[in-house]
Structure formats: C-alpha cells, structure tokens
Amino acid sequence: MAQYFILIDGSLSMNSTDSPNRESQWDSLKNRVPEQICQILQIPLAGEGGEFKLRFFNDFFVRDTGKIFPLHPDKSSRELLSQILQENPPKGATYLAPTLKEVLEDCSVSLNPGLSSQAFVIIYTDGQLADRSEFVNLLSDTCRQLNSPDPLKIAMVGVGIDDRSEVGPELYQKIAQNGYKFKDREGRDCNIFKFQLLEQIPDIVNFLNDV
Description:
By secondary structure, the protein is of the alpha/beta class. Helix content is 28%, strand content 18%.
C-alpha cells in the first residue's frame, strides 16, 4: 500500500515576488504544480488502501481540518487542481509542523514495522517557516519511531527560495544531508527528507523515486 500526501504552502509569504520575472511564488506554484500533481497521480498505488490527499498549511488551516482534498487519478484533472488553488489563496503565517504532524499521524500505519506500506509526503513551500525548530524536531522524533527510513519519505519542493530569501535553501539542504544527525529507533542514521528547487525538477516522479 502506498499513500501520497501533498502539502501546499498557503501562507501570505507565497505572495512575494522574488523571482527575476516578477512572478509571485503563488503564481509560480499555480502555473507549474498542477501538472506535477497530475504526474504524481499516475503513480500506481500498489494494493488496497492506497490514497492521494492534498492539504494546505498555514496558521489558519491548522484550525480548519476541512481543508483536505482527496485526489483521484481518473477525476483530478489539471483544471480541477488549478481551481482548488484558485479558491484557496494565501493567508496567514507559515506554520508547517502542526499540519505535518497530523499527516504523519494519518499515515502512522506506515510507521508500523509489521505492515508492508509506504508513505510519501510532498511539500511545496517558499521555505519561510515560522516554526523551523518545531519542523526539525518533528522530523527527528519521527525518525526515532522508524526501524529504517524505507517506509516514509518526505520531499520538499522549494518555490522561489534563493539566497535573497530570509530563510534560504541552506537550512533544507542541511536537513537533506542529515546534518542534524537524525537516528532511527536502533540509533542508526535515518534520513527521510529530500529537498530540491521547483525549477530544478524536470520530472517529479523521478525525484520522488530518488528520495
């Protein structure tokens, strides 16, 4: 069984226009991400119980668990995904950890070593997290529940993150290189996180397969 959880940064910082073409992070996401999600939806789920879900995150959506959108390979078109994005414009501050924690609890079956399952969490964000320490701690705590990194993969796709950003790509590159020394329940190195910039991902499926 495979589960795919797509988390989209719905915070006000996504309205920033740091890119050379003066396109906001949100516009860049709307223009490119629906196509990537459609590619993800074509990945075989390998057994019963597999699912695709989309969620937004910010401090408002932490309190609004209704903002969960089940996705279906045969029904979730690029147009529908674009409509979902259009109807949920950015607002609030960038809090990722509470929503990610709920998602990890939702896929807790994947943390059970007795079950053959795998979960992927794909995060689209400008990286300007207000809860960076909580995010790192959550990754560390999650690794300590695992026997190995195989059942759970978390992939962050950076939208408009560069050296001019308040929080640059270095933080996420450090996490991806296991610079925080995450360990599994047996004390072995455990790396469940990968990071890449949106414009540097020609094929999202290959990117996930390499996680």
